[in-house]
Design a protein that fits this description.
By secondary structure, this protein is an alpha/beta fold. It has one domain: 3-Layer(aba) Sandwich (Stationary-phase Survival Protein Sure Homolog, Chain: A), CATH 3.40.1210. 24% of the residues lie in helices and 28% in strands. It is built from six helices and eleven strands. A nine-stranded mixed β-sheet has the order 3-4-2-1-5-6-7-11-8, with helices on both faces. Strands 9-10 form a two-stranded antiparallel sheet. The radius of gyration is 19 Å and the shape is globular. It starts with a strand and ends with a helix.
Amino acid sequence: MHILLTNDDGIAAPGIKALWEELSNFAKITVVAPDSEKSATSQAITVHHPIRVDEYFMENPDIRAWRVGGTPTDCVKLALEALLLGYPDLVISGINQGPNLGTDVLYSGTVSAAIEGAMHGLPAIAVSLDSWHPYDFTPTARIIANLIKKMVLGSLPRYTLLNVNVPAIPADELAGITITKLGVRQYENTFERRQDPRGRVYYWMGGKIMATDNDPDSDVMTVSRGEVSVTPIHFDLTNYELMHLLTEWKL
């Protein structure tokens, strides 16, 4: 099995390192990841300046890696269309530091990198740990290893990925794995007006998560209960019910 790893925290982040150390026990690993953190870049691609790429030294000689001066989506595009001789069997993005739950997946570089793999018709997984603070990524990497072993490659419908979120609690306290739907995450955003040393105005965005009602079977509530959330995602955003209504409008 050949697995392509990427992330949005950068190639030197501890989350992706935990993944390649765990998954290299049973799979061929190729790493193509950003040279620095590229969080919240969504599906952005680089089109207005060159994308710099250089090989990255790995202590494990069996793992080949490239460091990319671009977005997570750039990384997957480059890997599949320029760097690799053939397609991998699976694309995994993560392990992200911090959750990617509910509507946050629309902003997430981690999820978008997995989406890019799915757009190429490949099975893909995005994985995140629900902690913004330093934490042991090894249990999460082992959960993904077990998930891969249970997957029959190609059994996912084309253009579909799995979004996995793991609570930041000891492995023996996890309350199981639950199949979930996307919930809703809303923020109370603030924009602080500042001036740079030359007097030019800029804004710095901050915010905090607001309490939002979510269904018990949503990923948001599942992780809050100490359960691992696995959400199948596809990128057909069509509102099919509204199509019928628009037909009645006789446009």
